[in-house]
């Protein structure tokens, strides 16, 4: 595949990945009503592990080294345990459009952790953009919570921080282990620990859940937890990390759109305005110059 064609295909894969991720919160909102937080948050990984195991065996992937295993633990805590569990719990009480606004801070959190992991010093521009985005999200959460933050809001913000660290660690590790292999091994690390808690929360009533609940859960397990990551990491490898990552700015708006289409949520002008402010702050912060420790040279977040 020629360079230009490869880059365009990478951008297309990136768009596919973002669309897949944008359906995660709506699917979680539907599934958690019938299966509960534990089954949806952790059960998706148990199911995904079956698919991942087949792929790893067929491709005869070698085991990660002990040093790589340490980084994979960080990825697993964020992308496999923390984020799915916290968002599942939050979606029991919050509308998807609410979650979309708060998760819009994820690229900024990822950029921040990537800076620190790379030994870089964030510029004033980065901190200003972080304050703008965070303040907008807090104002939005307080407005919808009638003057106080709900625990579900705190759970979503914690999910952003945890997944941001996980993304940064995974992006660093992907350079030596491979792109999709990072999430694949993270799933295999976490799944064995989730089998017992998931099993204890299974009930016969779940068998009678409507088809949309089952479709949502399967989507979360197969697509959100694994295939979307394959598309996303492959896209960055083909189209370039900087270019492809820009597509992620569409995610909060796609989430809001899907919430309107599939969940009949009413979207207010206030929600859209806050989403625009947050996305603008993320773009500003992600492109802020940073300096390497002990160096006067500059790079980009």
UniProtKB/TrEMBL annotation:
InterPro entries: AA-Vitamin_Transporters, EamA_dom, EmrE-like. It is a multi-pass membrane protein. This is Integral membrane protein. The keyword Transmembrane applies. The keyword Transmembrane helix applies. Pfam families: EamA. The chain crosses the membrane at residues 41-58, 70-90, 96-114, 126-143, 149-168, 180-199, 211-235, 247-263, 269-288. One of its GO terms (cellular component) is membrane. The lineage of its organism: Bacteria, Bacillati, Bacillota, Bacilli, Bacillales. Belongs to the EamA transporter family. It is found in: Endomembrane system. Residues 9-139, 151-284 form the EamA domain. Keywords: Membrane, Transmembrane, Transmembrane helix.
């Amino acid at each position: 595949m020629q360079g230009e064609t490869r880059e365009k295909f990478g951008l297309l894969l990136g768009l596919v990945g973002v669309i897949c991720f944008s359906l995660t919160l709506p699917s979680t909102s539907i599934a958690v009503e019938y299966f509960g937080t534990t089954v949806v948050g952790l059960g998706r990984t148990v199911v995904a592990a079956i698919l991942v195991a087949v792929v790893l065996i067929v491709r005869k992937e070698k085991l990660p080294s002990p040093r790589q295993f340490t980084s994979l633990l960080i990825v697993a805590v964020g992308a496999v345990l923390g984020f799915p569990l916290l968002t599942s719990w939050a979606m029991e009480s919050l509308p998807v459009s609410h979650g979309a606004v708060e998760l819009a801070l994820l690229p900024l959190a990822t950029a921040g952790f990537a800076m620190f992991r790379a030994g870089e010093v964030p510029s004033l521009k980065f901190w200003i953009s972080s304050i703008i985005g965070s303040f907008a999200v807090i104002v939005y959460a307080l407005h919808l919570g009638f003057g106080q933050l709900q625990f579900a809001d705190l759970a979503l913000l914690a999910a952003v921080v945890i997944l941001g660290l996980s993304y940064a660690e995974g992006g660093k590790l992907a350079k030596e282990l491979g792109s999709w292999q990072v999430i694949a091994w993270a799933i295999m690390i976490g799944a064995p620990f989730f089998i017992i808690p998931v099993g204890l929360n299974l009930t016969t009533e779940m068998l009678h859940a409507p088809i949309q609940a089952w479709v949502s859960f399967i989507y979360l397990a197969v697509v959100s937890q694994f295939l979307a990551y394959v598309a996303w990491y492959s896209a960055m490898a083909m189209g370039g990390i900087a270019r492809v990552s820009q597509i992620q700015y569409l995610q909060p708006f796609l989430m809001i759109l899907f919430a309107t289409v599939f969940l009949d949520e009413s979207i207010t002008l206030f929600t859209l305005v806050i989403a625009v402010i947050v996305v603008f702050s993320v773009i500003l912060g992600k492109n802020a110059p940073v300096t390497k420790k002990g160096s006067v040279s500059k790079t980009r977040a």
